[in-house]
Write a structure and sequence with these properties.
Blueprint lengths: L1 E8 L5 H15 L5 E9 L2 E11 L2 H9 L3 H10 L3 E9 L15
Antiparallel strand pairs: 1-3, 1-4, 2-3
Helix pairs in contact: 1-3
């Protein structure tokens, strides 16, 4: 499954500031069972709008990770909170099948 959220960087701050916190938190979150990777993307034409996509084997595994309080992760998220607004877009099932051109991997 995919968990997707939008990040809007507040005036006076940069996407790079958020990306630093995001990488540190992601490194810890990705140690959880079922974590399959994350990606952070900058919106074309709007460098202060980002989209984050976290991949998980299942919603249950993501929910289990969320249910485990990790003070280090919480601290990193709190440190970034003053300079971004985060809007969850939603949780999406992986498609039943994906057709990709030869020699391409799913992104």
């Amino acid at each position: 499954m995919k968990f997707i959220f939008e990040v809007r960087v507040k005036e006076g701050h940069t996407a790079e500031e958020y990306a630093d916190a995001w990488v540190r938190a992601s490194e810890l979150i990705q140690q959880a069972p079922g974590a399959r990777g994350t990606a952070l993307h900058r919106k074309i034409g709007d460098p202060n709008t980002l989209i984050a996509i976290a991949s998980w084997e299942s919603k249950a595994q993501r929910d289990a990770m969320e249910g485990q309080h990790n003070p280090e992760i919480a601290g990193i998220i709190r440190s970034a909170a003053p300079f971004v607004d985060i809007t969850p877009i939603g949780e999406f099932e992986d498609p039943e099948w994906v057709v990709m051109p030869p020699d391409r991997k799913e992104g």
